[in-house]
Amino acid sequence: MKITSKQDGALLIVRLAGRMDAVSAPELEEFMSGHDLSGRFVLDLSELEYVSSAGLRTLLMMGKQVKAASGALVLAGLNGIVREVFELSGFQKLFLVRDTIDDAIAGLA
């Protein structure tokens, strides 16, 4: 999995690309450990091709940590199999999910 980020004022946009599975999910945990979780985050999943149960667990833990720190997290760009996995697992109900980055940013306002 490839992780890139862009700081936009107080907002951090994190783009995940490739596969998020048991091997790569810890990379996101490590990446986020270097950031103040009381901030505002958009996770751009538009280039994520696959997410396993380990990836879902990482996202759930991240969501809980951000919430506990009074931060905000919005997911954007779920496509194909990733959207299907979120719908089947009920994860779209656990997160604020938007179709585009712009919609996600507006959701944080």
List strands and helices in order, with pairings.
Layout (H helix, E strand, L loop, with lengths): L1 E7 L2 E10 L4 H9 L6 E12 L1 H16 L3 E5 L3 H10 L6 E3 L2 H8 L1
Parallel strand pairs: 2-3, 3-4, 4-5
Antiparallel strand pairs: 1-2
Helix pairs in contact: 1-2
Description:
With 109 residues, this protein is α/β, with parallel strands linked by helices. It has a single domain (2-108), classed as STAS domain (Transcription Regulator spoIIAA, 2-Layer Sandwich). The chain contains four helices and five strands. The chain has helices at residues 25-33, 53-68, 80-89, 101-108, and strands spanning 2-8, 11-20, 40-51, 72-76, 96-98. Strands 1-2-3-4-5 form a five-stranded mixed beta sheet. A hairpin with a 2-residue loop joins strand 1 and strand 2 (11-20). Helix 1 packs parallel to helix 2. The protein is globular and about 30 Å long. The termini are far apart. The model has no long low-confidence stretch (mean pLDDT 94).
